[in-house]
Amino acid sequence: MEKEMKKGIIAIMVILCLGLMGFVGFMKFSEDNTPPEIQFQDNEIVYTAGDSYDGLLDGVTATDNKDGDVTESLVVESVYPNEDGQTATIVYVARDSRNNVGKANKVVTYRAAADDQAATSDATEKTATDESADAQPSVTPEATDTPTPTPSVTPDAGSDTEAASADTTSEDDSEEDDSTDDLSAEAPRIKLSTNRVTIKKGESINRISYVESVTDDKDSKETLYKRIEISGDTFDKDTPGTYEQTYYVVDTDGNRSNEAKLTIVVQ
């Protein structure tokens, strides 16, 4: 009788273990680890250096196997010119509700900024002028008895001007100090593309799209994007007002980044 009871207990424990293993396997199987897929229409895009990224999202969509259409999560992570100087590569990022991040690249026509083109043109003209001047024979001017004037120098005025200039530069530099200066080398860094956004009442907004970059000494961008936190005022697109948002990220080692501030104004 006692042996039968032991066998029964053992059988029950085996059944419970098998059930637990089956449950864990089911949860693992149903877990969503698939990132969204980004699709491009066959439309030509021309990017000029310095332009806004807004137009680069035209004709680009993103879909997820669980969430469906996640096009609103699309952002342009970066744009970099290629070696040929005529094209650029755009890096697109989309993510789903489980923070799975999908990326895709697209090569587009690239144009340098007008200032860069003007600088290149000026450099070319200067080179041509210098070559022309070098080709001309040198002429030694005749000596004259006209005395060389001695420039007047006012030390006090010059010193004051230089001091004022130095003070202004120092103030500008101090105003431009980044909040990342006090962080350790192991802490992640987060940067926003702007610090103020104005939208109309009821207009949808993707707050993550204003993250320009997030970096760490160990974690990848995909990992960091999943760990971004936004604190501050409770945002409501249907209620006019000013909402202060604070962005930060904690890496897998527990290091916390700087805080990036975004003000959202709903009119």
From TrEMBL:
Q: Name one Pfam family in it.
A: Bact_surface_Ig-like
List the residue ranges of the region (Disordered).
Answer: 113-189
* Keyword vocabulary terms for this entry: Membrane, Transmembrane, Transmembrane helix
Query: Where does this protein come from, organism-wise?
Result: Oliverpabstia intestinalis
By its UniProt entry, which InterPro entries does this protein fall under?
Cry22Aa_Ig-like, Ig-like_fold
What ranges does the record list as Low complexity composition bias? 140-168
Q: Where, by residue number, does the polypeptide cross the bilayer? A: 9-29
**Pesticidal crystal protein Cry22Aa Ig-like domain spans which residues?**
195-258
Protein name (database record): DUF5011 domain-containing protein
Checking Gene3D superfamilies in the record gives:
Immunoglobulins (2.60.40.10)
Q: Biased-composition ranges for Acidic residues?
A: 169-184
